[in-house]
Structure formats: structure tokens, C-alpha cells
Amino acid sequence: MYKVVSQFLTRFVKPATIYKYGFNWSPMYRRTTARLTEVSDDLHYVKIRLKLNYKNRNYAGSMFGGSMLSATDPIYMIQLIQILGDDYVVWDKAVTAKYKRPGKSTIYGEFVFTNEEIEALKNQLKTEQQVDIIKTMQLVNTKAEVIAEFSKTLYIAQKTYYKKKLALRLSK
């Protein structure tokens, strides 16, 4: 449903605006209590803000780790789907979470893809057809102290290869 609505809205609004407000209005993402605050026009940069409040406060009075993880979870995958386009398949594969200190105030996170990363990824997919990449991001407080660090493993494949691979698996 989200993809269909997004494709329709691109006739009237730029993709970065759809990405930002789509996330912020989506019931699933709203429940994380995070908000996208910045999205670059090319979608290579996304910034989120996660405020400490009664919805995400744990027993110890700091931010629940699950809120931090869920706020970061979908960003890289959907960001990459939008950047690469319909010729590729992107899936979240794994995440490693390292909580460094309690989140006792508003925290921020940035998700970045460089043009060089995207070109290298496309070139790699021309020869390998599927790859796993690891992207690491940090959540920081207003003093730039690292609160948590997440390393996301993303699976990316050429769509034609992925469909063949899926069909072969289903035929067994």
C-alpha cells in the first residue's frame, strides 16, 4: 500500500517530502516516537529525532532500547530502495545493537549514503548479482555523546536475479 501511494504522490510532490511525511504519518513509525526531521532531495541523507517521553521511558527512567532500535530499523532499507529504484531488491537482514549510555534526553541519528557508495554498490551488483552491506549509524545526544550504535546488514540484489533465485527455491 505504501509503495502504491508513494508512486501516486510523486506526480505532485518530490520523493524526499513523501519519504519524510510518509514516515512521520505512518502508524508503525509513529509508535517508535521518532520523527524524521531532515531528508535530502536525493534521499542520501536522513536525520531523525527521538525525544524521551512517557511512551519510551523504561523502568530506570531512560529511553527504552527497543524504541531506539525500532526508530532506526526501517530507515536504511527504505532509503536504499528509493535511491536504487525498481531494478533492485533490498531487505534488512540483521542488526547489531550496542548501547553505550542511557538516553536521558532527546537523541538524534543520521543515515548517510554517498554517491560513491551507491555507484560502487551498483558496479558490484553488475558482477555479483547479490551482496550484503553493513551500514553503521549512531544515536547521539545534544552534547554529541554516543548513546547507541547500530550496525545494519542489508541484502541487495538485482531484481531479475532475485526473482530467479526465489522461483528456484519455491520449485523445490
Task: Give short descriptive properties of this protein.
172 residues; 40% helix; globular; 32% strand; alpha+beta; 7 helices
Give a written overview of the molecule.
The chain is an alpha+beta fold and 172 residues long. Helix content is 40%, strand content 32%. The chain contains seven helices and six strands; from the N terminus they run αααββααββαββα. The protein has helices spanning 2-9, 15-25, 27-30, 65-72, 75-84, 115-128, 159-171; strands spanning 34-39, 45-50, 88-99, 107-112, 130-141, 146-158. It has a six-stranded antiparallel beta sheet. A hairpin with a 5-residue loop joins strand 1 and strand 2. The longest helix has 14 residues, at 115-128. The protein starts with a helix and ends with a helix.
**Helix count?**
7
* Strand runs, count: 6
What sort of overall outline do the alpha carbons produce when their principal axes are compared? Answer: globular
Q: What is Rg?
A: 17 Å
Poorly predicted segments: none
Order of SSEs? HHHEEHHEEHEEH
Mean pLDDT: 92
**Percent of residues in β-strands:** 25-35%
What's the oligomerization state?
Answer: single chain
Task: Report strand order across the widest sheet.
Answer: 1-2-4-5-6-3
**Structural class computed from helices and strand pairing:** alpha+beta
Helix content: 25-40%
Report how far apart the termini are. 30 Å
Task: Please describe the biggest sheet, giving its number of strands, its sense, and whether it closes into a barrel.
Answer: 6 strands, antiparallel
